[in-house]
Amino acid sequence: MPFLPHTEAERAEMLKAVGVNRIEDLFSAVPETRRYPKLNLPAPASEPEAISEMRFLAEANVQAQDTACFLGAGAYHHYIPPAVNHLLLRGEFYTAYTPYQPEISQGTLQSIFEFQTLIAALTGMEAANASHYDGATAAAEAVVLALQQSRGRRRVVLSPVLHPHYRRVIRTYLQGADIHFAGDETPETYSAFQARSRIKHLATCVDESTAVVVAPYPSFVGEVDDLAPLAEVVHTAGALLAVAVNPIALGLLKPPGEMGADIVFGEGQPLGIPLSCGGPYLGFFATRRAYLHKMSGRIAGETSDGQGRRGYVLTLAAREQHIKRERASSNICTNQALMALAATVYLSLLGKHGLRRVAELCYHRANYAADRVARLPGFQVVSRFPFFHEFVLRCPKSVAEINRNLLDHWEIIGGYDLGRDFPCLANHMLLAFTEMTPREQIDRLADALAEESL
Amino acid sequence: MTEPTVYELSAPGRSGVSLPALDVDPSTLPPSLIRKDLPLPELSEADVVRHFLRLSQMNYAVDKGFYPLGSCTMKYNPKINEDAARLPGFAFVHPLQNPESMQGCLSLMYHLQSWLGEISGLAAVSLQPAAGAHGELTGALMIRAYHLDRGERNRRRMLIPNSAHGTNPASVSMAGMEAVEVPSDRRGNIDLAELRKACDSTVAGLMLTNPNTLGLFEENVLEVADAVHNCGGLLYGDGANLNPLLGIVRPGDLGFDVMHFNLHKTFSTPHGGGGPGSGPVGVSEKLTEFLPAPVVAILDPGGEEEPPLYGFRDPQKSIGRMRAFHGNFGVLVRAAAYIRMLGAEGLRRVAETAVLNANYLRTLLKGAYAVPYDRICMHEFVAEGCWADAPGIRAVDVAKRLMDYGVHPPTVMFPLIVHDALMIEPTETESKQTLDAFAEAMKKIAAEARSDPQLLHEAPHHAPVGRLDEVRAAKQPVLTGKL
């Protein structure tokens, strides 16, 4: 039997030491009528059989490395330097537990401390935690923080161009609380959608009962807005501004911390984490120092031992579920520490110049692509300038049909069908560009779309 | 041994990656939107690899040795799982691809859903929650939604035994309900009389960890389920301790209506220094339409020649989405590979061996340590790390001294209902030799507690750092390094 070390002789010896005759005697507390169910599972596979089954399943998928992939919408195909994976595969990192015993967990603790430092630097904020499950749950926790901070305010304003999954997760998390949502009502028409996606519209939704405004940067449809005017309106009303960011964009764009954001969070997947069909990903979360004690999740802090040597510990644990139980600010226990390590290694490798270069490639290629496809008859780029690395393309027919042709005839994974989330955006496609989509692939996309013009 | 931070290692002008040149004409960007400074470090690839390799060497890990951390199920994780999750056909699939182009992923998820349903005896499973506590919140929200759907708005109280994981009450209050503590009896079971008193028309349900955090199987579990059901409540199972039940008994057969699975514990995903995990939820028939969206379903059964077509479905009364996309897919691959290799018989052997190992260790330690609930345990047991004749020594000192013997300490100071608890879970992957050596070390420490208490107070002596000033870390928080 794999994974089980005992020989028959050892097993017998151990049973004898415990004082029972048979292994079954250890389960006498389990109700007899329910004991030993027959499980209808496939017969065990050997290791080579199991891995070949897994390979068979994996090969049944179309994957971004074998194609030109223009699908983004919250998850992105970026280059992952091999050193990231090599370091993640160090058994000392990936087979360790949550660092409850700091003396023998300094590797994990210092890497968390470095992650916090890098995220604070990237977002322009003062404090960061050790991670959330993903960008969407970080969004929900941002709203929870703001509601706790505001004590009694019950209105939450969501931008209509915040990722649809994030908006849905926020509502799921808060269905047991007495909260009113505003700002992201489903628009009937495309022009209403465009009007509502403006920062100015969002500002009109803020009132004295508002606890928080959640705005994206760049938006779900790719656009980049200066958030400083919104921050002013939000702060005047006594509310907080939480901003959902794409971390790669922050290689180029002014950080939200400089525009007045109180909380900055986002999906860390672009930072060295594979697409992996949606997970595991990484929620990052940063705040101003004032909200430190309300921030959920694990936090590492610097301190020293009896000999004055620098070391790190999990700290500010009084906020946490194992101490405050029902009064905890969150129930997070297992987080995404290994994914945070991936992001830390990634940001260390790319550094100041590498991240800037990746962001520039994304930006300039997206703009180049927009120029190319805007000239195709029947297509129209409808995103407002500036956009970062995604834009919306109005198409002459259904996105599903176009995508099918792109994949079948051109080995291209096309854009995201926005009609899935916004009925008024039927026939609208969201296209994403990264350092993995060279000019040659963009030209191929344009040629392929040209055939869909009629 | 102090390792500089990445910022301290940084030197201007270095980079650890080579990237493509710009191959298109540059566009303009409004200057007001461009950041002036990007304060990231500058390191070569070798700098980065050596830095993190040195950090890794300051960690204890399962791949290095024994990790008897109670309630955490730190078993050895088969390496084949890592290879499976990293297959390019899994690693490079975009979650929003057309379902037709990701049938391999969907087939794996569909089968894992049905296997978890079979193992738990529950009708339906959603793989979406990202961790155990995330599954708890999901379960609490489903229970809330179920009562609201039946028009029972006053069911807002969730009963929770005082031995429960701290995440249980936290999850309940996040779901907008009230956590109500129920005491345990002298045998470590939930106090049945107190439970019956608490059961009324305001009860939404009971969250039960079984075996509980003392490592004991709830002897009255059928009576507990009846008490909760009779007052109209639902029974929630905290799946953190599922490992010893695999193939022994199915929670659904005991009356549980909803439970979460900690795939990273029971089904062998390494813990990654704190995550990622995965916390799928299983439910009985009456809750299937409340599951978080989406679940994987067969959209077209196919035929003799044609395979079925898998896709996503949103349950009709779904509580909503718990996260973006479909769950921690990479963890799902590891769990599926593990279940596939063990089958029904192997899973049962896992549980039996885990329970045998715990009872064997309990037997070995009994003379040297007090075991407050001394009866046949399941996969873990709780000992006391304090003695009347060693008044200054506490569980935490025993834990720190264990590091000097090359072992990760057990869970300390939990469960809260035992003084100076040492919660020990050996798991099934540890050999008799490992258990014997651990027991020897524990006995030596018990002797040292009397003969040389200072040795324990000052431990660890052979770790990269000594005991750290946790009070200072909390009172004067330094949470970021110098840029």
Order of helices and strands of chain A: HHEHHHEHEHEHHEHEEEEEHHEEHEEEH
Distance between the termini of chain B: 22 Å
The computed structural class of chain A is alpha/beta
| Mean pLDDT value of chain A | 96
Largest sheet of chain B: 7 strands, mixed
* Portion of residues within helices of chain B: 25-40%
Q: Which percent band covers the strand fraction of chain A?
A: 5-15%
Distance between the termini of chain A: 62 Å
Global structural class of chain B: alpha/beta
Low-confidence stretches of chain A: none
- Spatial shape of chain B: globular
List the strand order in the largest sheet of chain B. Answer: 1-7-6-5-4-2-3
Write structural notes for this entry.
The complex is a heterodimer of chains A (454) and B (483). By secondary structure, chain A is an alpha/beta fold. Chain A contains 14 helices and 15 strands. Chain A has helices at 8-18, 47-59, 82-88, 91-94, 106-123, 135-150, 164-173, 190-196, 199-204, 228-236, 321-324, 337-374, 399-410, 439-450; strands spanning 68-69, 127-128, 155-158, 180-182, 210-217, 240-245, 263-267, 283-287, 300-304, 310-314, 380-381, 390-394, 412-413, 416-417, 428-432. Chain A has a seven-stranded mixed β-sheet with strand order 2-8-7-6-5-3-4, sandwiched between helices. A four-stranded antiparallel β-sheet of chain A has the order 11-12-15-14, with helices on one face. In chain A, helix 5 (106-123) packs parallel to helix 12 (337-374), helix 12 packs across helix 14 and helix 13 (399-410) packs across helix 14 (439-450). Chain A is globular, with a radius of gyration of 25 Å. By secondary structure, chain B is an alpha/beta fold. In chain B, the strands form three sheets. A seven-stranded mixed β-sheet of chain B has the order 1-7-6-5-4-2-3, sandwiched between helices. A three-stranded antiparallel β-sheet of chain B has the order 10-12-11, covered by helices on one side. Chain B has a two-stranded antiparallel sheet with strand order 8-9. Chain B starts with 5 loop residues before the first helix and ends in an 8-residue tail after the last helix. In chain B, strand 2, helix 7 and strand 3 form a beta-alpha-beta unit. Helix content of chain B is 36%, strand content 11%. Classes of the chains: A alpha/beta (454), B alpha/beta (483). The interface between A and B is large, with 207 and 204 residues.
